Amino acid sequence: MAVIDGNLGLLLGDSEAKAKTQRQRLPIAVVLAALYLLVLLVAVIYPSLLARDQPLAINTTQTFLGPSLHHLFGTDQSGRDVFSRVIYGARSSLSIGVAATALALAAGSALGLLAGLGGRFLDVVIGRVLDVLFAFPGILLALLFIVILGANVTTLILAVGLGTVPGYARMIRGQVISVRDAPFVEAAAVLGHTRWRVITRTIFPNAMRPLVVLATLGVGQSIVFASSLSFLGLGTAPPAPEWGAMLSAGRDYVATAWWLEFFPGAVIVLFTLATTALGRHLQRHFEGKDAA
What we know:
Layout: H1 2-24, H2 28-45, H3 82-117, H4 119-135, H5 138-149, H6 153-163, H7 165-180, H8 183-190, H9 195-207, H10 211-231, H11 243-250, H12 259-286
């Protein structure tokens, strides 16, 4: 019997060890996403480490050269190296995405907290406002801001950020309501904690836990949003290197110089996939599920 118990204990121990190993082993998609984002971070901080040419350097003798060892992504209509422009454009594109996401999360969190904790009247009023904003497509709302304030980087950040506020506000409101009615919040109130202390020490930290996941996913969405507006000529003005503006400048030559559209577009798509993979992994981690 002792032998059987010992073997059973070894089997259980092996199963637990394997389960722990599976939880600790990162999926290959998450590893690749992290490496890609790390490369982009280097491009933001120190672009000259990755690109040897200046993004605005014009060379009329090397226009429309295809991808090669000397020009990895080819050259554009002015002879500028597309790879260098993509690398240097990471700073502008990612700055817009991060700033717009931070603005959207801040405004959405404030509205969500007010709706969830401000009583029925505030909840109804904010809910109706969000319903009205949801009735407008995000791109249409962004265009409205740009028409009123003019096309520039600051307006682009405001347009993208405010255009995505309703979604964040509704998610935060739902999270606040679920936490507000949780037993541990009632226990904190029974113990004599003030309402402000319950909100700041109990409700707020637990309701804001999904913000890490939302921020990770939101940056990719904001960059796609901002690139769409830049593609329409409503963002960064050419010839500044920015991914959406590069797509806009290259659309007239897509039949003869496909690389002008392909490589900036591929960088945007890969960034979105990388942030989505990382965000989903973080979501599963916070929910206590296996990373695999």
